[in-house]
Amino acid sequence: MVTQTDVVKGRFMGDPSHEYEHTELQKVTEGEKSFDEEVVVQIKEETRLVSIIDQIDRAVAIVPRGALFKTPFGSTHVNRTFEGLSMSEVKKLSSYFHFREAVDLKNKTLLEKANLDPSLDFLDSLEYDIPKGSWSIQMERGNALVVLRSLLWPGLTFYHAPRTKNYGYIYVGTALRGPPGQETQSKALASGELECATAGDTRTRLLATAGGDNLQPSFEEDK
Amino acid sequence: MESSISFHQEKERQELGGAEPPGEEGALAASPHEPEPPSPAPWEAERSPADPEPRPLGDVPGPRGPAPAAPPRGPSAPTPGSPDPDLAAPWRPGRTSSAGPGLDPRRRPSEEREPAPHHASPSEEASFPWAPQSGAGLRGPWGASHDDSPREERGVIISPEEDSDGHWDPALPEPRASEEAPSMLDIAIQNAKSFLQNTSSKTGLNLYDHLANMLTKILDERPENAVDIIEKISQDVKLAHFSKKFDTLQNENELLPAYEIAERQRALFLQGHLEGADQELEDEMVENSLPNVMESAYYFEQAGVGLGTDETYRIFLALKQLTDTHPIQRCRLWGKILGLEMNYIIAEVEFREGEEEEEVEEEDVANEKDNGESEAEDEEDELPKSLYKAPQAIPKEESRTGANKYIYFVCNEPGRPWVKLPLVTPAQIVTARKIKKYFTGRLDAPVISYPPFPGNESNYLRAQIARISAGTHISPLGFYQFGEEEGEEEEEVEGGRDSFEENPEFEGIQVVDLVESLSNWVHHVQYILPQGRCNWFNPTQKNEEEEEEIEEEKEEKGEEPDYIEQEVGPPLLTPISEDLEIQNIPPWTARLSSHFIPQYAIAVLRSNLWPGAYAFSNGKKFENFYIGWGHKYSVDNYTPPVLPPVYQEYPSRSEVIEVDDPSVEEEQALMAAKEASEFVAEEIEESEEDEYEEEDED
Known about the structure:
Chain A has helices spanning 2-6, 45-60, 87-90, 110-115, 182-199, and strands at residues 19-30, 33-44, 62-64, 68-70, 76-78, 96-98, 135-140, 145-150, 156-160, 167-171, 204-209, 216-221. Chain A is α+β, with helices and mostly antiparallel strands and 223 residues long. Chain A folds into 2 domains: 1-55, no CATH class; 60-178, no CATH class. Chain A has a 4-stranded antiparallel β-sheet, with no helix packed on it. Chain A is elongated. In chain B, helix 7 (133-148) packs across helix 9, helix 8 crosses helix 9 and helix 10 (207-221) crosses helix 11.
């Protein structure tokens, strides 16, 4: 669904039943002939909305460390004795976890794993997020409130009052994904191209070579 | 005490020795309740007199110590074969903690005998080295219940281990009651204990351990009124389970930043005399330049925009401080720009006439360059002269005009000192249009970008503020009007009229109209031309001296003077309906703040080009506000501009031809060819000489 709705760019209309039209070139084989046919795909805004919400949640929903814990049986529970992060922890990115299934844990070295507490450290921490520096940590009102803002999805704000149980996040924005960092632009492109190639369909490919020199968007059409 | 304990222990040991074989029959893990008539008897006899004393049941090997929950299990130990009705007695409330020590060792024997079925784990032993006072309370109910109806309890309480006990017979004969009552008690206690040891399915803890931990902690720390804070202690013990233990260093300075900011903001709340000269200043200021921030905040809140009452009030006070310390004619809260490390709160002010501080004039770089070039021309003729002529830097606009119409003050947080931002130059605006960087929150941070930004973060901030103001500051149509004296129509001032004044006869526009039609709103900030200024500056117009020089140069080179078209932009007070769309998205989104109560609703406009810019109006009043990251909206992600192509060092002319160096093979081939040709040439010469000779001879 994500790939489908990602083709629609621009702002949301505000009407869930609004339909975006997107023309795609699809290879249609009829008998021995194969030609490209323009297909107009209709995507409803509510689908797009659902997909964006899911993307945002997956990418930048966070919880503080210790708020959830995992039993040996595998189920996750809210930690009723979570009293908030301490002041020394509150400014570190490693005290916050992504609220989604962990993807990075297996890749950690044994040394790193030794320092982890399996009941608490079972989610990805923000420390190794790509792009680096995509989180801004600020203290408000002296030290009474810590606010994390995501630069990957500008508009996502996470707050937490240290030493209390209050924490939460909210997204207010235009659903525009932030720019990827320099290091990851090439990766993003590579994966994007890969996607097109493996999809099997021939589509117009937007090739943009990034990297500082010779930035030129160029269009190529495959046959 | 000790002696009696040891005495009892010995007795127990003996008893246990005898109890082992019969202990096997029938009852199980909770074997404590095993009746053993012969040996218990003397035991009982001894124990009854020793009743008031605590019952050291134990085996010496067992750790002594008060056993808080041991009381319920106490009977378990002696019961192997010691149905002791009197056992119930010591368990009535009132038993001193000294009873405890014995209970623990008491347990041992039972455990030793049947460690496997016994529900208790060795961990219990370890966790129960003592018996707190509260332990007595625990025993109380148990004892009571046991006393009351051992028989019934026996039937009711079925501990898990006893399921396989076939000997449970509620209808056991009376004579055995006395013997089995304690066993009943023991069973009950054992049941209770096993219940307490139930592992929680959620957390993996069990109540038994938790209580033990808690009581350990209490006895270690001996707080006052422990009973009042028992819940807190319980919570702390649970919490301790989660924290990592190896960090023993504690941070002492944790609360300082909060105090710091509170101290600073406290100063805001202090009224009155900040400096000595304030009295006069206050008298002079007839019109209060302080804006009614709270009122605007109230309206914006209806639109869902704002910073919260708390922060807004502090900003309000900080603005008050600003207006008190500077000679300000007009002041307005412009908005808040978020940064990575810190945020900026921005105030737009207009100084009073003539009170403005002079800024150090920056030297005109262009002039220098021109001069430098002409000098170079005279001195060194040999070096090829660079044809590059830096485009003349467009001078910035004077303050109070164009993009520099207002002065901006920023602070990171209310309470911190206000810093004045420098005037903006056109070059900065032009470059700011090409880059997109997040603000860090520090005004002196460098802005590293391509194209290189001429300035640091304070300049970039100022440039963005200028752009945002020019793009999004709007007012209802008619609120401002052009002054009567301003601009004769014939003389088209380059860039249009640039000043306006409030219309005293403004009657307000219906809110509904404001929302429906965008042409009811107008920009009241001048449009910034692509050049970077509001008023067109013709770069070919230079002062006379320069003009002559440059014209001479140009004539020498045969170039024509550049004709630069005057850039025009929409004039002041154009309605926003003329704003360009961005890819089919309207530039502004207007809505009423409330559909249900339209009579008190306000019109809210949100900019789609600069996300974060809002404007509201209730018909008569209006206000603009910005809160955001300070960037323009772009559908595609930002990509830095392409680097320009590398310049040619000099054009290839006839004298100087640029070719690649020959490679080694080419050189060798050339050499070989050369030698060959030389050889041939020699031969020809020789032959020619021969010929000549021949001819001469002839």
